[in-house]
Design a protein that fits this description.
Helices cover about 55% and strands about 0% of the residues. The protein has about 220 residues and is mainly α. Among the domains are: about 60 residues, Orthogonal Bundle (DNA polymerase, domain 1); about 90 residues, no CATH class. It is flat, with a radius of gyration of 23 Å. The two termini are about 45 Å apart. This is Putative hmg box protein.
Length: about 220
């Protein structure tokens, strides 16, 4: 876990989410910057807390119009040294702002990818009133502890169920790939990637037309 992530969450007063983030692989600020709305919902972030974190991520990436309560340590640049008596003194290089990278819209017609064995186990455990009554952080810790302590044969049962779900999903995807919706989404992805590569939106294939053609 990086000190930058811990310091940022403490400053935003979101430190209670740190154990769940780290446990689910979000163990550095750079990784958290790529977190999605779905990830935040799955991790139990309250709506207001999601917006606080998303504003900080936007400020970190240098997105114009990012709303924050103060300057972000990721976007601040050190003051220049105007001391003429020490021209040879080293200057701290300005940190380059991270460019926000858009992501393609998800395929709303595709089969939904199944949950992992761990997520299914966690969902089942949360149905226990003794667990669901705990705080979010305590639930995350308890789920992780019980999963680690689960006997191999019981863990194997969850993993087998997840494997069967994945096989069913792959079969559904094979069938979906033969449909017109899949072809339209692939065309949308191709146009999106070309737009990303060129850095400007192609006038001949505007986003609105691709997306309106895809949504059926």
């Amino acid at each position: 876990m990086s000190a930058e992530l811990s310091d940022t969450l403490n400053r935003l007063r979101l430190q209670d989410y740190l154990p769940a983030l780290v446990e689910n692989g979000f163990d550095s600020w750079d990784v958290v910057c790529d977190i999605t709305e779905e990830d935040l919902a799955h991790l139990g972030f309250k709506l207001g807390h999601r917006r606080i974190l998303q504003r900080e991520i936007a400020a970190s990436r240098g997105v114009l119009g990012a709303d924050s309560n103060g300057p972000s340590p990721h976007t601040m640049t050190p003051p220049e040294n105007h001391d003429s008596q020490s021209p040879a003194s080293p200057r701290v290089e300005e940190r380059t702002k991270r460019r926000y990278r858009r992501k393609p819209r998800p395929d709303i017609n595709a089969p939904q990818k199944p949950k992992t064995a761990y997520v299914n186990f966690a969902d089942n455990l949360r149905t226990d009133p003794a667990i669901s009554s705990l705080s979010f952080v305590d639930i995350a810790r308890e789920v992780g502890r019980r999963w680690q302590a689960l006997p191999p044969e019981q863990k194997h049962t969850w993993e087998c169920q997840a494997a069967r779900d994945m096989q069913e999903y792959e079969a559904q995807m094979d069938e979906y790939k033969t449909t017109e919706n899949y072809r339209r989404y692939q065309n949308y992805l191709k146009a999106f990637r070309q737009d990303q590569f060129q850095g400007t939106r192609s006038r001949s294939t505007p986003k609105s037309s691709w997306w309106s053609n895809f949504k059926v």
